[in-house]
């Protein structure tokens, strides 16, 4: 299945970026609308939103990142120097209660969407339903924009589902925050003594002159240089390889599994960053 995912991802490279329409989903998958990457940078004011005026290099980075992060979206597998996580802080008075309140709100928000069709009817879009995944993100882009300005636990950026046959089982939600945020600002949303946010960093875009087959190898093959699994992690190395370096791609993200019974499981880092495909 992994090879099928990689091949499908590769042929989608040219269709994912910023509102372009990807290949039609299979007849068994619900229509999904926009296919932007969950957690894509929605942190800028509306006048600065990445549209026609966005630099081509920035569009290319998010397009490539959308494509090649797809291969690890099943659990955000360990990306080493390409992933940055917030450090666990010393608990402060009230942190546990505040985190529990977020989890309670997340559960109430999620319960509305136990039936995935309700989510689709209320504006959530499946991220590439035509590609087999362990976990599917149903993303609400209006809520993603809202998250750029304020934290509303009732409005998760994405709902997280596992697919069982033709049905989807709801397992959690994902919240996002602007990539410009420092850890103090993230702590205001969810206490960092309980939860660890993550972001994807040190992304080197492969040269545009590469063919699709060359890019597939360069991003996903053995000895990959580029992207979130690549060996290139610095501006200097990226420049030397003819790529374009981006210190950060996408927003801060955190998963919440509010149907679990204990705090460690609700905010499980190992589940967010699963070590297996």
Keywords:
10 helices, alpha+beta, 277 residues, 7-stranded antiparallel β-sheet
Class from secondary-structure proportions: alpha+beta
- β-sheet strand percentage: 15-25%
Query: What's the overall geometry?
Result: globular
Main pleated-sheet profile: 7 strands, antiparallel
* Helical amount: 25-40%
Distance between the termini: 10 Å
Low-confidence stretches: 1-34, 41-58, 68-78
Q: State the strand order across the main sheet.
A: 1-6-7-5-4-3-2
* Structural domains: how many: 1
Give me the Rg, rounded: 18 Å
Number of beta strands: 7
Q: What's the SSE pattern?
A: HHEHHEEHEEHEHHEHH
Count of helices? Answer: 10
What number is the mean pLDDT?
78
Structure description:
By secondary structure, the protein is of the alpha+beta class. The chain has one domain. Helices cover 30% and strands 17% of the residues. The chain has ten helices and seven strands. A seven-stranded antiparallel sheet has the order 1-6-7-5-4-3-2. Helix 1 (2-11) packs across helix 7 (212-220). The longest helix has 17 residues, at 95-111. The model is unreliable at 1-34, 41-58 and 68-78 (pLDDT under 50).
